[in-house]
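Lab channel / #folding
Pinned by the channel admin:
"Please post every new chain as: sequence first, then the structure tokens as a reply. Keep commentary short and put observations after the output so the thread stays searchable."

First post following the new format, from NK:
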Amino acid sequence: MEEPENRAEPEFVWPRVNTLAPGAVRRWLVAGWADLAAAPAASLFYGVVLAVMGFLLTRFFAGAIRVALTTGFLLIGPFVCIGLYAISRQRESGQRVRLAPTLIAWRENAPAVGFYALVLTLLLAAWIRVSMVIVAMFFPSGHINWDLPEAWTFAAAYTVALSGLALFVFATTSLSLPLLLDRRDMDAVTAAIVSFNALRTNFVPMLTWAALIVVFAGLGFATYCVGLVIAVPLIGHMTWHAYRESIAPLGK
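Reply from TO:
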């Protein structure tokens, strides 16, 4: 009796990162707005949910913890936008946009997405602790007083600390979660490396995009979170198009 042949496992091929053509961020903005305009009900649902979350953060917390949670909002953004990536994917494939499937889109690659959610939660917890320590160094009472001379030194130190952590999170998550949603066999570590490679390959456009995200989120909070209703869906849809243009499809 012949022994069954040993079938070799297919060789793993790293997703290829494209070099972006000029005007990439503008194209993502236009495409993201088109998704928002084409599926306003589903998109704005996520915007409203995140705006309410943002409002609660600024309404029921004060002092150092409120600053930490508000700035930390940017750190967990990639995860909370998964449903928006799914909406863009529905439109891209010609499907009718339906909200219900996007609410559980994370289940398509649950282990990897769950791992990412855990990592982002731990990073948020670490940032809250670091943020409170920085505030306490300048304001022992825990309440930030912008009338004091050291307030601007605090602002500089806080911005440097947040920027460093935010850049790390952006580098490893900006495209990784759309990648995990799109490719069910992809693991979290590989997706993070691919996302980092995309930033390294297209540093200027990716950093420009990161700055635009910060501006949109800042304007959202500056308008008592009302602006987040539009800003969050727009950022989420832009992320999907950034992924599509930055990462070559399978087999290419």
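NK: The mean pLDDT is 87.
TO: also worth noting, The chain has one domain: 24-246.
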